[in-house]
């Protein structure tokens, strides 16, 4: 089973029964009509057993924080601000009280930080721990940034350095140590930068499945191509250092690793100066092209193919 194929199937097999849907499946969140000034955003994400978090490595509190941060990241990627969340748990019969207390200390701490109200949820019994967060937020209509909004000629940028999260996961699996582990265990959304960028950007998306995949998503939805300069991709120092321990090229983690939760966005060149004025750190790494030119990586003046990223299934 391929994650993207399932999403494409679902997208084709559902239809909207009300005129309030501005954007359904196919972006970081759904976008719904709300009032004259704002749209309502809605998103959901599940952490399961050992697919997205490894109970041996994460504390219950860290799991709770990740459950909130990953959804905040999707709301941020629309140009919005999170407001409400619901948490649904599936817990095995033998789950101890300490796990639930720890989990909720993380959920509480992180949601307080963003002023998110937990307004409901559900608890069911099952064979494996599963935590589903549903989050809602609002975006000023003028700040909404959809994946389909990229324009030919836009610069492609990211809000931070990449690669550390996946390097950290690989270290943990091999029972090795390194600073990158911290990035994997303590993911943090970049809501602050996203808020500044939303006014000036065209398309935005958060980096949960890897930079390459997110850029391909933007190109697919906005019917464009893209050129990425390999030497301009910002790689976190700890990822470069720890990749040596793994004996691997850090660029692969930055491009295909995922769960860095920075924002990738496209912006008209003339708007970059406004971000500089607002002290918003960005890294320019490529350009949006006409669709017929394709999506490729520039490596030392040579065109190479952009591979595919992390698949959750
Ligand atoms: Mg996303």
What proportion of the residues is helical, as a percent range? Answer: 25-40%
* Gap between N and C termini: 7 Å
Number of helices: 11
Portion in strands: 25-35%
What does this structure look like?
Strands 8-10-7-11-9-12-13 form a seven-stranded mixed sheet, with helices on both faces. The chain has eleven helices and 13 strands. The N and C termini lie close together (7 Å). Helix 3 packs parallel to helix 4, helix 3 runs parallel beside helix 7 and helix 9 packs across helix 10. Helix 4 links the parallel strand 4 and strand 5. The protein is α+β, with helices and mostly antiparallel strands. The structure holds magnesium ion (MG). Magnesium ion binds next to strand 8.
Write the layout of secondary structure elements.
Layout: H1 3-13, E1 21-23, E2 30-33, E3 38-48, H2 49-52, H3 60-76, E4 81-91, H4 97-113, E5 117-125, E6 130-140, E7 155-158, H5 164-173, H6 180-185, H7 191-198, E8 204-206, H8 211-222, E9 224-229, H9 237-246, H10 250-256, E10 263-267, H11 272-277, E11 283-290, E12 295-299, E13 302-305
Short key terms for the protein model shown above:
313 residues, alpha+beta, six-stranded mixed beta sheet, 11 helices, 35% helix, globular, binds magnesium ion
Summarize this entry quickly.
The protein has 313 residues and is α+β, with helices and mostly antiparallel strands.
């Amino acid at each position: 089973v391929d994650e993207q194929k399932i999403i494409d199937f679902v997208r084709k097999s559902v239809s909207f029964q009300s005129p309030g849907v501005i954007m359904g499946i196919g972006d970081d969140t759904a976008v719904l009509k709300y009032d004259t000034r704002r749209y309502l955003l809605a998103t959901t994400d599940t952490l399961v057993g050992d697919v997205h978090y490894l109970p041996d490595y994460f504390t219950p509190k860290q799991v709770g924080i990740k459950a909130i941060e990953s959804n905040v990241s999707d709301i941020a990627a629309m140009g919005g601000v999170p407001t409400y969340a619901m948490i649904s748990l599936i817990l095995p019969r033998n789950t101890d009280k300490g796990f639930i207390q720890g989990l909720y200390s993380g959920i509480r701490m992180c949601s307080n930080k963003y002023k998110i109200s937990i307004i409901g949820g559900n608890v069911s019994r099952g064979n494996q721990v599963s935590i589903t967060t549903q989050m809602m937020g609002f975006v000023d209509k003028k700040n909404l940034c959809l994946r389909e909004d990229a324009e030919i000629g836009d610069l492609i940028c990211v809000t931070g350095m990449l690669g550390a999260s996946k390097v950290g996961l690989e270290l943990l699996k091999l029972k090795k140590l390194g600073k990158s582990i911290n990035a994997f265990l303590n993911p943090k959304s970049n809501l602050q930068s996203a808020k500044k960028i939303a006014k000036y950007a065209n398309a935005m998306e958060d980096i949960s499945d890897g930079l390459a995949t997110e850029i391909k998503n933007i190109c697919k939805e906005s019917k464009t191509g893209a050129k990425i300069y390999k030497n301009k991709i910002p790689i976190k120092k700890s990822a470069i250092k720890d990749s040596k321990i793994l004996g691997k090229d850090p660029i692969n983690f930055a491009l295909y690793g995922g769960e860095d939760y920075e924002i990738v966005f496209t912006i008209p060149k003339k708007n970059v100066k406004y971000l500089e004025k607002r002290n918003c750190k960005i890294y320019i790494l490529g350009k949006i092209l006409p669709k017929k030119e394709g999506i490729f990586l520039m490596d030392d003046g040579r065109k190479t193919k952009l591979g595919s990223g992390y698949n959750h299934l």
